[in-house]
Structures are given as C-alpha cells and as structure tokens.
C-alpha cells in the first residue's frame, strides 16, 4: 500500500513539475456556421500539421549619414547588427516530441469518432493536382532561424514552391471534392526572441533583441535582407535596389482550424502568448553604433574628415546554451496544452 501511495505521489509530482514549466493558457476562438459543419461527414482530412521552433534571430538597424551644414556638420552612416542563437537543442528529441503531438492529436480525433482520410484518397482530387507530396519525419529550415518539424509517417501536399505553399483557400475545395468532409489545419510556433525598441537613440544605429521562450500567438518574424553583389556592369546599373537595414517580414500565429465545403470554419488561437518558463533566461542583446561626425574648425585636418565620414559598423552575437531535454519537454507541454484545449472546445460542438 505504501509503495502504491509513493508511486501515485511520484506521478502527481512529475505531472505538477511538467505543468509548472508553462504559463496560463488563454485562448480566443472564431467560429462561423457550426450548423453546416455538423452536417459534414464523420471523416476528416489533416491538411497541415506544422510545428515550428526558432533557433536563431538576427536584427539590424541602419542610420544614414549626411551633411548637416556648418552647425550639424557631416555625419557618417552607422549600422548595428545583433544576433542570438540557441545551442544545445536536440533535433532527435524535437522530432520525437513532434511525433507525440501528432499521435495525441490523431487519437483525440479518432476517439471522437472521426475517420482519418488517407493520403491515397486525397491524391485523386483535382484541387491538388500536380502538387508535391512530403512525408515525415523531417526537420527543415523554411525561414532563416525557424525550423519546421514534420511528424513521422505524416504526409501532406503542397505547391512546388515549398512547404509554405499550401494554397490559399484550398480547404473548402478539398472538403467538397472529398465528399463534404472536415479539413483540419494545425500551425504552431515556439519562439524565443522579441524585438525591442529604443526611440531615443539619437545619432546612432541601435538594435535590441529580448529573449522570451513561448508558444507565440501573433508574431512578426523579421529577417534582414541579404545584399548580393551584381557581377555584370548592366546588373550593377539596373539591378534591384534595396534599402540598407531593411528586413523581410513574415507574420505568423499559432492556431488550430477546421473547415467544411461551404467555408464554414472554426479557428482557435492564443489570446496571449503561452510562456515556457525556466529554460531560456530573459535577457537583452544589444548592438549600438554611434555615427561619426565632422564639424570643420581651424584645428581639423583632412584626415579628421575622412575618419569621421567612414561608415561605422557594430555587431553583437551571442549563443545561449539550453538543456536539450528541458527545451523539448517545455516545447511539448505548451503545444500539447493548446491542442488539447482546442480539441476539447470544438469536438463537442460538432456532434
């Protein structure tokens, strides 16, 4: 009896410690026309199951120089670049946790009485004719610093341009051509960085990255644009012009969605980011570069002028060591809590 009580206590303690690694889950739901979704068959097609996690972040700021006249003087251009990455993440563990998330998701659907539509059946519909097919397990960097994990034995179709080419508004077409079924999507983003602002930087370039590991609700992934040298004279003259310090922006959010053939849908997302605690310490990584300046006087020389006008550049790079086991477990806890919550919310409404 004592052994049994000890075992139960140990299990409860383990569950408690596991639950403590994430913050409070707060979700928001958008739902339309549940009546039509209830008329759909008890068959479901999993159109996407994307679990993404961030391992590296870069940010850049550029301050252009110029001529401020006798009072302002001449100023140089300044560039500040900061980068931070996580080391210690175990790719094998991340794949295992993603596999488990998918397994849990499938079981929930099957326990609710749904039949999962096979890949072979989906291949026959016109909506995805000539699309590519990918089967997990797989870890791939779709965006700089963002790793997408594909569950083992999960197959999905996508346009030839890549994993993000799942097609706009394809779900109702699939639902109809598969015989009035439910089409489901899952997109999860575990992010560790945040962009900080500093409007009082004066004559300087400054960039700030804050660390905060979480399952992100809405987030803008910013990636500094890369500049390529134009090899030909014509290319140098007529090549595309980019602004220094510019970044590409990719807006993402963690969500779970269900669709039917008449575009009725349910979308569950996070009202607030779900923090994953005690794995990545919160800190700031800052790069700062002041502009050079030159105001002519009787004591200045031409070399003073050249030195002040030269472009200035500052960079800060930091790697943060994390415990691979704790990271994978926190990642799983947050993603699974959200998936469980949303399935418990929607499945009873579809009966």
Please, could you describe this protein's structure?
With 351 residues, the protein is α+β, with helices and mostly antiparallel strands. The protein has one domain. 27% of the residues lie in helices and 38% in strands. The protein contains nine helices and 21 strands. The strands form five sheets. Strands 1, 2, 7, 9, 10, 12, 13, 16, 17, 18 and 19 form an eleven-stranded mixed sheet that branches. Strands 3-6-21 form a three-stranded mixed sheet, with no helix packed on it. The protein has a three-stranded antiparallel sheet with strand order 4-5-20. A hairpin with a 7-residue loop joins strand 12 and strand 13. Helix 4 packs parallel to helix 9. The longest helix has 23 residues. It is elongated. The two termini are 42 Å apart. The relative contact order is 0.25. The N terminus is likely disordered.
Describe how the helices and strands are arranged.
Elements: H1 2-19, E1 27-31, H2 34-38, E2 43-54, E3 56-63, E4 66-67, H3 69-72, E5 74-75, E6 78-87, H4 91-111, E7 115-116, H5 119-122, E8 132-135, E9 138-143, E10 146-150, E11 155-158, H6 171-177, E12 182-196, E13 204-215, E14 218-224, H7 233-238, E15 247-253, E16 255-259, E17 265-270, E18 274-275, E19 284-290, E20 293-294, H8 302-309, E21 312-321, H9 324-346
Parallel strand pairs: 2-7, 2-12, 6-21
Antiparallel strand pairs: 1-17, 2-10, 3-6, 4-5, 5-20, 8-11, 9-10, 12-13, 12-16, 13-18, 13-19, 14-15, 16-17
